[in-house]
Design goal:
This protein is mostly helical. The protein is 60% helix and 0% strand. It contains seven helices and no strands. Helix 4 crosses helix 6, helix 5 packs antiparallel against helix 6 and helix 6 packs across helix 7. The protein is elongated, with a radius of gyration of 32 Å.
Length: 193
């Protein structure tokens, strides 16, 4: 009866009571601290060693998979130390945005291997000379990339804050775009600002 008189007085006052806010209880008593601690307690060493080993292996596989995906996506906490930091991210993005001659190095080496298997010495010689010429072009490309990246980093972060990133940029530029880790985060031509 008290509820109807409350709702009548509430409607007279110009507002309604929310019937959902009236608590009906949870149906069981609140557990004591001792009960909660006993429920959480687990033995340090499991009695079933095979099951413990299996669950540990599954847990480690899940962690490794999470780290692999995070590294491929470029998440800072999953990257190795050599890839961490804003300057390294800038270098990665800059290298990934441009086309490097070194990206063609591995396919060209496979082509030269195939050419050296042919029984024609002229073709073999031409293939090897072309490979060495391409090595020279790739080295020149990597050296210019190192100077450009260093100058851009000095402009963005300050000349005194520039890390040694030429070797890092060169190694990334010599890899095929598909094989780079962390995976490229920018499209070609989208240079970082």
């Amino acid at each position: 009866m008290a509820k109807t008189s409350e709702s009548d007085s509430a409607s007279k006052a110009g507002y309604e009571l929310n019937q959902d806010s009236v608590s009906t209880g949870k149906g069981h008593p609140t557990p004591t601290r001792r009960e909660k601690e006993l429920a959480r307690k687990q033995p340090l060493v499991s009695s079933d060693r095979a099951a413990a080993r299996k669950t540990a292996r599954i847990h480690m596989q899940a962690q490794r998979e999470r780290a692999r995906i995070g590294m491929a996506a470029g998440e800072e906490k999953y990257l190795p130390l050599r890839d961490r930091g804003p300057q390294k991210r800038y270098v990665r993005d800059y290298v990934d945005a441009r086309f490097s001659a070194g990206e063609l190095l591995i396919p060209l080496m496979f082509l030269v291997i195939i050419l050296t298997a042919l029984p024609f010495p002229e073709v073999q010689t031409i293939g090897l000379v072309a490979l060495w010429a391409f090595f020279l072009v790739a080295i020149i490309d990597v050296l210019t990339l190192g100077f450009i990246v260093r100058r851009k980093l000095a402009a963005k972060f300050g000349a005194d804050k520039v890390e040694k990133v030429r070797w890092y940029a060169a190694m990334r530029a010599l890899q095929l775009r598909l094989m780079r880790l962390p995976k490229p985060q920018v499209k070609r031509g989208k240079f970082p600002v």
